[in-house]
Amino acid sequence: MKLTHQPRVALVTGAGRGIGKAIAELLAADGHTVLCISKNPASCGGVADAITATGGKAKAYPVDVADAAAVAQASEAILKEYETVDILVNNAGITKDNLIFRMSDEDWQDVISTNLSSAFYWIKSLVRPMTRKRWGRIVNIGSVVGRIGNPGQANYAAAKAGLHGLTMSLAREFASRNITTNTVAPGFISTDMTGKLNDEQKNAIMKVVPLQRFGTTTDVASLVNFLVSEEAGYITGQVFSVDGGMAM
Ligand code: NDP
After folding, report:
1. How far does the centroid of ligand 1 lie from the alpha carbon of residue 141, in Å?
2. Cβ of 119 below 6 Å from ligand 1
């Protein structure tokens, strides 16, 4: 089935690398104007430049998504330029793993702010024009860990499970405005984030992934691309796993 994509303005956080980069590239290839957010100016800048070099429309905004004031300021500038952001993909995320009795308050807070509060900041700053337009798509990137937990990742699992709750509540809040809100929950995907794992950890993961491989960034981006299409307009409040069958 060929998906219908009217050209929209899409904002993708964490678009500088990994899954966010793949999402930004796929949305740009389908004709959307993509606003690429990352912390490091070089990474979102590089992705936006590569998209424009191949004829797509993109612009880079280096923003620390964990900083409420920075998100509000960037959103104001973006809305001045584009009037509405139609598609919002909250993808930026970090890990700071440790067993709970060794986890510092700072590592707890950093992961909650970057992976969960950031979604609240962007949605709050950008949703009003979406409601006026009576069309919107919000996709939050969760994790299999937010569904089943993982020792050493209490902060990360709490943030990702929190995103699932946020998604369901906002799906109900915005349904009457034709805005859908969904979560995509990847399993183990080959990116810089999982590049830190040693062979022993990778072998242990393979034992619990029925499809017996790490996912690709395109595996995740393809689902996001579907969820933001016209055809996905009757799907809201859901969590979709892209995890090789890990969480059944
Ligand atoms: P990467 O580490 O490859 O990339 C993370 C991106 O997020 C980077 O572009 C980074 O910016 C950006 N980012 C991190 N912190 C901030 C911040 N404070 N402000 C702005 N941007 C920030 O991650 P992945 O692509 O692997 O992961 C993407 C999402 O998918 C995350 O939410 C992650 O939790 C989730 N996920 C990933 C899985 C995996 O196996 N890879 C599995 C399940 C979920 P910069 O480039 O500037 O550093």
Report:
1. 10
2. no
Q: Using the mean position of ligand 1's atoms as its centre, give its distance from the Cα of residue 132 in Å.
A: 31
Q: Whole-angstrom Cα distance, residue 136 to residue 177? A: 8
Q: Kindly list the structural domains of the chain, giving each domain's residue range(s) and its CATH number in brackets, ordered by start.
A: 9-242 (3.40.50.720)
Distance (Å, rounded) from C-alpha 231 to C-alpha 173? 21
Q: Which atom of ligand 1 is nearest to the CA of 142?
A: 44
Report d(CA 115, CA 127) in Å as an integer. Answer: 19
Q: Is 156 a catalytic residue?
A: yes
Q: Is pTM beyond 0.70 here? A: yes
pLDDT by residue, tens only, the chain of 248 residues: 788 879 999 999 999 999 999 999 999 999 999 999 999 999 999 999 999 999 999 999 999 999 999 999 999 999 999 999 999 999 999 999 999 999 999 999 999 999 999 999 999 999 999 999 999 999 999 999 999 999 999 999 999 999 999 999 999 999 999 999 999 999 999 999 999 889 998 999 999 999 999 999 999 999 999 999 999 999 999 999 999 999 98
